[in-house]
Design brief:
CATH class: Mainly Alpha
Radius of gyration: 16 Å
Helix content: 55-70%
Number of strands: 2
Distance between the termini: 31 Å
Structural class: mainly alpha
Number of helices: 7
Shape: globular
Strand content: under 5%
Length: about 180
């Protein structure tokens, strides 16, 4: 559920922000792939991160496909929803291009998820949308409901290797290493 409970609660109606809707759909994707996904803080963080990643990347794809203007700050999540409770510009619920690393964890899924979403954003920047999205989504089938950052990263690297070979796997590994995820 969104920050204010069911969609439709909060300062701006959450259902007015397509990125909020797409973020919530990301949770549905995880639960369809791995029933009960998100039973640990790290798995919950991965779920929040994937929702944020999906929200901004689907929005960017739609803009390109339909000739809409690409929003100026692509990495800003749910900027319309956040307008009612943030004072900074742009108004972002969260960002997927921050500098957080594994050592910055605070035990809160939305905050810690920004570590994982940055790794996903970097994978997409390095490999392109089509390749990155295929790796990311396919890897999630191998996650456990309580997966750790390390186990999920290793699964994602292995998926990249299986799908595209060693060079692509190395790029994926580099993205997780840049976030200082241990054991990758």
């Amino acid at each position: 559920m969104s920050r204010g409970g069911p969609i439709g609660k909060g300062g701006v109606d959450d259902a007015e922000d397509a990125e909020v809707v797409m973020h919530e759909y990301g949770h549905a994707v995880h639960h369809a792939q791995v029933p009960g996904f998100g039973t640990s803080v790290e798995a919950g963080s991965i779920g929040e991160a994937f929702g944020d990643y999906l929200a901004v990347t689907v929005g960017a794809h739609a803009a390109v496909k339909y000739g809409w203007p690409l929003k100026a700050d692509v990495a800003c999540v749910a900027d319309w929803d956040a307008v009612s409770y943030t004072s900074t510009t742009p108004h972002c619920l969260r960002r997927i291009d921050g500098d957080k690393v594994y050592g910055d964890r605070v035990g809160q899924v939305h905050a810690d998820g920004q570590i994982w979403s940055r790794a996903l954003f970097d994978i997409r920047s390095e490999l392109g949308a089509r390749t990155a999205d295929r790796i990311i989504v396919n890897a999630q089938f191998g996650f456990a409901p309580d997966t750790s950052f390390t186990d999920a990263a290793l699964t994602t690297v292995a998926t990249a290797r299986k799908m595209y070979g060693a060079e692509v796997a190395a790029a994926v590994r580099d993205a997780f290493r840049a976030r200082e995820i241990p054991g990758v």
